[in-house]
Amino acid sequence: MTPPIPRFKPKMATFRPPRFRLPKARSAFLKLFLLFLVWTVIEAHISHYRIARTERQAKAKGVLTAPTRVYIASLHWNNEKILRSEWNKGVVELVKTFGADNVFVSVYESGSWDDSKGALRELDQELEKLGVPRKIILDDETHKDLINGPQQEEGWITVPDGKRMPRRIPYLSKLRNLSLQPLRELAMNGTMFDHVLFLGDVVFSAPDVLNLLKTNNGDYAAACSLDFSKPPSFYDTFALRDSRGQEHVSLTWPYFRSSKSRSAMVNAEPVRVSSCWNGIVAMPASSFTGIRGLRFRGIPDSLAALHLEASECCLIHADNPGSRTRGVFVNPAVRVGYNRLAYDAVHNDPTSGGGGGGSWLSLTEVYVGLWRSRLARWLTSSWFAERSVRARIGRWGRGGAGRVEKGGFCVVDEMQIVVQNGWKHL
């Protein structure tokens, strides 16, 4: 028999898709990007943990451990609502915390058209019962009286329509200096204080103040809270400057453009800044006494005429030699509000929608804040606005012998005047 012829099955060719390889540069970029995302996640969690830890420590520090003498200074204008609802009670709580013999209360109210005077009379009666030394001035001069009264040699400016109007900052500086006059008189008679506590028209508590006084272990030329009117945005943009003298990069946490200030805020540490005010401020009382004691001021009228202005609350730090040696700090553990809702929103109160987990910021807010700050620093610059201001200050300085403005970092492109119902920009 003839053997069968073998049949060969042809081998089917297997299809193998080509291997996709990223270019080396693109692959390296992707790895770096993923590494950056991982670091951002880690950074956010670490920051959230540190904020929560600082909150716990702040609660432990909010107690009085040694006798402390405090001079309380405050200005008020049309603040009846918060005086009656919060502020008066806060001051009484402070007095009871420090002891009536360790406190002096100095209040200057100026021309309110609400019943701020009545509210402060009620406070005066409460302080009388507690035996608190005090000076509460209720001034009848309104803004209208000031505008229509005799013009002063300083503190007035010609506005674009040709009228002469009082400048807001010299006016406020005058009132702040009047609120400190009893401190100077007491010092001349041998009565001394450890701290001057400037209290704005804010909601605060005694533990807030005790925490503020212990900022940086009590070593500072000035220590400020953070203030909020409409959280999460902070309020006092006019006075706050970071460690490099620059304005904020973002209204929300972590606020600052300079790496030094921003890093401290992210790590929930006292933040070194060039200037701050932000609701409540503590400064050594010795800064304001003696022949060389500090005085609040505005920039010269001749400089303001170039459409420039600076907060008296920033200039005081520029004028203070201690600002450079001892430092000016924002304490992020001390937060105050211009109403109760704002105050509660920035505290870890379960009924207020606070951050939770012991932190006044939620983890989401930390994530968003870090990225918002990063993008703002990448995509914006303060150089152009600062250059314009510096150029005008330089031109002013060359226009007269001895013209120097130490608080150049405080100056902004604004003109502010007093008007009948408050103040306004021009």
UniProtKB/TrEMBL annotation:
UniProt superkingdom: Eukaryota
Protein name: Glycosyltransferase family 69 protein
Organism: Chaetomium tenue
Lineage, highest ranks first: Eukaryota, Fungi, Dikarya, Ascomycota, Pezizomycotina
